[in-house]
Amino acid sequence: MKNFFRKYYTDLFLGTRLFIAIGVCVTLFLFSFFIPILGDLPYFVFAVLMALVFVDLLLLYLTERGVFLRREVPERLSNGDDNELKIYLENFYGFPVSIGIIDEIPFQFQKRDLWFTTSLASREQKSISYLLRPTKRGEYDFGLTRLYVQSPLKLVSRRFNITGDKIVPVYPSFLKMRQYELMAVSNRLTDIGIKKMRRVGHSMEFDQVKNYVPGDDYRTINWKATARKGDLMVNSYTDEKAQHVYCVIDKSRAMKMPFEGLSLLDYAINASLILSSVALIKEDKAGLITIAEKTGSIVPADRRPMQLNKIMDVLYKEKTRYLEADMEALYISIRATLKQRSLVVFFTNFESMSALERQLPFLKRIAKFHLLLVVFFENTTLKSLSEKPAENVEGIYIKTIAEKFAFEKKLMVKELTKHGILSMLTPPQNLTVNVVNRYLAIKARQQI
Predict the structure, then answer these.
(1) pLDDT of res. 258
(2) Given 189, 223, 238, which residue is the final one in a domain?
(3) CATH number of the domain within which 427 lies
(4) Same domain, yes or no: 162 and 228
(5) Which backbone phi and psi does 377 adopt, to 5 degrees?
């Protein structure tokens, strides 16, 4: 009896139509006391209702597994991107059904209203798609999927609990990385905001000797090859390859600040992954260093096919620390790891000039041996406050303070430039495009 109760009664829910019908029966019984002409009509209506409920129960419970469901989740999710998930449905009943679906998605999304409704004819198949945007890396636990099935009578509904427990890891933004890879391979990076850089002078990387065509530079004519072949031949050059590009990520408390759901650390991680991918496509060697109160992970620069997966696996585990970055440890790590002149892209954040001055001596030492690009973030909230007109005395005070902080950021750029350090002040949402643009500009100008 207990098993029967657990199997059937706990999954039985009364529908809206049944409550309306019960209300009609109660009304008829009530009026029958005052209107004798109604006679046995209330009893007849109630009997018909009970018969319909019994038929509805038979329709729903005679088939053991009336509806098939499968949740289709990717093996991993991309942080900060819209990831597509699907729910596949198939109706095994011999009649059309109406279905309500509750999908128990991970608690990190903080969504309790993920409810889908659909209808299926007999033997019909259907897929429902929806998007999820994770904002933290780590493991996400998916729970049950609950179906509420109604027959055409819609008096009661039967619940199916589909076990779909699955733990899915959320990795740095690999969806955008693939998009940038495709754009870079097809030379269509301009479609997503990447500027086309004019090459300055000639690269020292010799490619081949080819026949002259109108438009080739006369200065590249190879006179010896021309004399041997009897036709004009020119030397062809290509971008220098196998240059070292290191992304250095600050994991200290300065990178904890949130922006549109993601922390600055997550923006830096996503940009580092994409920059490493573009560098490998350009046949450079990509590496990674993370730093907080001590040196974190170090991935030596390489351009083997598995290098990008190695970098992604390291970035997946990184978390924000709550102490200040140890720049001396970073300098020692760079000197020990980087054996030749490299491009070092340092992702960090400064909110005051004093914070920059504490790190400046070590940044100058790094810049003596490598091409250092310091990337820090523009506070978009303060910028919007500084541009908003003040309406009262309090507004004037807030606007003045916001303008002061915004001006300090510009002073930081000038201070770094004064010491021969490349810098970039960027809003978080434009970080990836701006960093890739700067890398391509450095390559075009042959600064490494």
Answers:
(1) 84
(2) 238
(3) 3.40.50.410
(4) no
(5) -110, 140
Q: What pLDDT does residue 335 have?
A: 92
Alpha-carbon separation of residue 278 from 99, 367, 411, 434 (angstroms): 46, 23, 31, 13
Our count of domains for the chain comes to: 4
For 234, the domain range is 207-238
Mean pLDDT of 11-33: 89
List of residues 6+ apart from 438 with CB closer than 8 A = 373, 422, 424
- Do residues 21 and 53 touch, judged by C-beta distance below 8 A? no
Mean pLDDT (whole number) for 147-157? 92
Q: What are the percentages of helix, strand and coil residues in the chain, rounded to 5?
A: 45, 25, 30
How many angstroms separate the CA atoms of 158 and 162, rounded? 13
The conformational region for residue 264 under phi > 0 = left, psi -120 to 50 = alpha, else beta, is: alpha
Decide if pLDDT at 205 tops 50. Answer: yes
Identify whether residues 134 and 184 lie together within a single domain: no
Q: Is residue 2 part of a domain?
A: no
User: Are both 380 and 396 inside the same structural domain?
Assistant: yes
Q: Which is more confidently placed, 284 or 221? A: 284
- pLDDT for position 50: 93
Segment 272-289 shows an average pLDDT of 91
